[in-house]
Amino acid sequence: MPAVPLSRRHFLAATAALGMSLKPAQASAPRIVSLDYGLASTLLSLGITPIGVANAADWSTWVVSPPLPASVADVGDALAVNLEALTSLSPDLVLTTPYLDSVTPAIEKIAPCLRLSIYDASGGDVLPKAERATVELGQAVGREREARDFLDRAARHFEACRQRIARSPAPAVLLISVLDARHARIYTAPGLFDSVLHRIGMRNGWTRTGQYWGFETIGIEQLAEVAGPDIHLIVFEPVPRAAIATLRESPLWRSLPFVERGHFAILPETLMFGMVNEAMRFAGQMADYVEAKR
Q: Do the beta carbons of residue 215 and residue 187 sit within 8 Å?
């Protein structure tokens, strides 16, 4: 569904529903459920622990950092929210995205919703959109100052990573998640990873643009189409055990130039559809990788 930008009317309505002013001086934090990992991690960085998160059980697999407090309830899959569990939490606000438009009407019967748009058909690099959404979220929950401080810390982190990487020529990188022994998800413009690469002075070796989520599903053999001695292949965990075992025995995989040259690494999980926290984690991983390869 095409994304509808957060209007000032919707923003003020959500804020009013919380009984909040736009000032950061709040006596107590609102009770917020997030149906999106990126919005939940942003809340944590603004000093608010959500009372519930969709797919909380998988947080340590996909998000990792910041850790999710044990007190946070799991409200089920984002597209199949456990409405009974959600009702029992008595939230003041539920955070949603355009991806969740199909389930939002049912959720609005339980609590007001604030829809923040990062991954949508409007296009554009994801990182600046995530930064704008961070400010909007901070305003809506009375933590505007905290949001600005968080973005200042993020900007310093990106600059520090850029300076670390700039000490020697940085390789172009192909960024993939292995789906099975024959297919991979490769990360493209205008997604979060591609946007961060530009911010820290690196280059995406995959030049085709994907959809607004910032990825394309390819056959493993298509990696052989990308040539160049300076291209490195980065694979993100989790990797299916059966797939990596099969690939290691595959003549095609072993003949890929970056695999032959040792320009290949498997890095820990990083949420590819996240926001600023996840962008910072990825930037740090890239800086560490470049330094280790010098």
A: yes
Helix (H) or strand (E) holding 276: helix 276-292
Percent of the chain topping pLDDT 90: 82
pLDDT tens profile 261-288: 999 999 999 999 999 999 999 999 999 9
DSSP letters for 172-233: EEEEEEE-SSSEEEEE-TTSHHHHHHHHTT-EES--S---TTSEEEEEGGGGGG---TTEEE
Does an H or E element contain 39, and which?
helix 37-45
Query: What token pair was written down for 118?
Result: 């990062």
Query: Is residue 237 left, alpha or beta, with left meaning phi > 0 and alpha meaning psi from -120 to 50?
Result: beta
DSSP 108: H
Whole-model pTM: value is 0.89
Residue with tokens 């340590």: 60
Question: What does the DSSP 8-state code read for residue 262?
Answer: T
Measured N-to-C along each axis, helices 192-199 and 276-292 cross at an angle, to the nearest 10 degrees, of 60
Distance CA 289, CA 285 (A): 6
Average pLDDT taken over every residue of the chain: 90
The CA distance from 209 to 211, in Å, is 7
Residue-wise over 161-177: b if at least 16 C-beta within 10 A, else e? bbebbeeeebbbbbbbb
| pLDDT at 83 > cutoff 80 | yes
Give the span between the Cα atoms of 62 and 220, in whole angstroms.
Answer: 23
Residue 144 has which token pair?
């505007």
